[in-house]
Every structure is written in C-alpha cells, then in structure tokens.
Amino acid sequence: MSGLDLGLEGRVAMVAAATSGLGLATARELAAAGADVAVCGRDAARLDAAAAELDAAGPGRVAATRLDVLDHDGAAAWVERTAAELGGPHVLVTNAGGPPPGPVLGFGLADYRAAVELCVLSHIALVQAALPHMRAAGWGRILMVASETMRRPTPRYGLSSTVRPALAGFAKTLVQELGPAGITVNVLAPGFHRTPALEGAPDLDGIAAAIPLGRLGAPADFGAAAAFLASERAGFVTGTTLVIDGGLGQAI
Q: How far apart are CA 120 and CA 112, in angstroms?
C-alpha cells in the first residue's frame, strides 16, 4: 500500500495470532504503514520469525509475546505490557484459529462451548482489555477476524457458521457506545485464502474455480483490507462486516 498514507505512523497496533497466515499478513501491512506492532502467538520459533519479518517491513517498533488467546488473563496482561512498552494501543486486531469442520449435528455441547471460547470470548476479552487505552487516546480501531461462514452458513463448517455471527452482534452493539469516543468497530470475514491452514484442504483447484475471481485469496489481499479499516482514512466506517472472499458469497 505504498503511496497511500494511512495515518498510522506513531500508532500502536496489536495483532493476535500473527505468526502466519492472515494475522501475519495484517501485521505486515500495519508495520509497512509505519505503525508500531505488537503480535502474539503460541509457537516461540514462529513468533521469532514473524518478529524478524515485521521488523524488516517498516520503520516502527515490533514486540512479540508468546500467548494463547484462550488465556484471558494472559491476553489482558499482553495489552497492559504493550501499553507500558509501546504506548496505545490504538489498533486492535483480534484473531484466533477456527473450530474443527463438520456438520452441526456432529458435535456435542462441549464442542460448542469450546468454539464459543475460541471464536467469540477470546475476541471479547482482548477488546475489553484494550478499550480503556483507546478511550484515553480518543482514537481507536477494533477489527475482529471471523470467517465468511458467518454470512454464508456452510454445512461443512457447522460450528463456525453457528458461533461466529456473535461477533457481528457484538460489534454492532458496541458502535453506539464507542462512536463518541472516536473508536470504530468492524468485523472481517475472510473466505478461502492460501494460508498454511488451507494447504491441507482437499480440492483446492475446485475451490478456486468456484470463486468468481478464479483464484484463492492471497494473505496480502486480506492484510491490505484490514490495514485500510485500521487507518485514519476509514474513520467513517464502523459496525460493518467486510467479506473478503473473491465474490464467492452471493448474499446481498
């Protein structure tokens, strides 16, 4: 996104689960735009590699923390550590893995509880921890990464289609409360992108052929959209769910 000033120089961005895939692509775009970037991940080696890549991507500072986002106390501590060491945070990108695939009747209540913990509560915990800092700054961008299955229920992804719509409800409910504080809240709903998590999926060629643009998304496609919503230029965009799926979903 060179040549387009996103107004992120001097801002502090936090990106969860950012050691690979869409999280790393988003962090890379934010770093390239001049933001200081704090990332977290579970694997120490991948976290170190991501930090080195982000350090080379832009002029800002980079901080990497080993964290499982299901550890809500640890997530809150990560926010406080970032605020103390870097400032802010001004931008928060909540992100987590997805639940296992399968039909809705193929799971028990314990599976649904685990999916809610991963796909909903891990996001809410980070938002709650970051909001006091954004209110104090009078400026903030909250982006929650979900999935296009929240807009296009898919039998193969029953858990995801069931629990992820809660993030859109959470975002919509926050809009009225946070608007006067200069904080926007949006949900990103990616479709099929060529990430490590997708590489093992069957029939990738068939999936790509079903997408109107004729290809799988690149992580950078997603990262660019996320960076725009995190920017100064997107200050009048809030309460939306942005589907990034190459036109696969046909809902209006």
A: 11
If one counts the domains in the chain, the total is: 1
Q: CB-based burial of residue 198 (10 Å sphere; 0-12 exposed, 13-18 middle, 19+ buried)?
A: middle
Per-residue pLDDT of the chain (252 residues; tens, 9 = 90+): 445 799 999 999 999 999 999 999 999 999 999 999 999 999 999 999 999 999 999 999 999 999 999 999 999 999 999 999 999 999 999 999 899 999 999 999 999 999 999 999 999 999 999 999 999 999 999 999 999 999 888 888 999 999 999 999 999 999 999 999 999 999 999 999 999 888 777 788 898 999 999 999 999 999 999 999 999 999 999 999 999 999 998 877
Residue 248 included in any domain: no
Tell me the residue range of the domain where 60 lies. Answer: 12-242
**Residue 147 structure tokens:** 């999935």
Q: Is 136 domain-assigned?
A: yes
Q: What is the CATH number of the domain that holds 214?
A: 3.40.50.720
252 occurs within a structural domain: no
Token pair of 69 as six digits: 């986002």
For residue 235, give the amino acid letter.
G
Does residue 219 sit within a domain?
A: yes
Where do the DSSP E strands lie in 81-236?
91-94, 140-145, 183-190
d(C-alpha 119, C-alpha 163), whole Å = 7
Three-class secondary structure of residue 190 per DSSP: strand
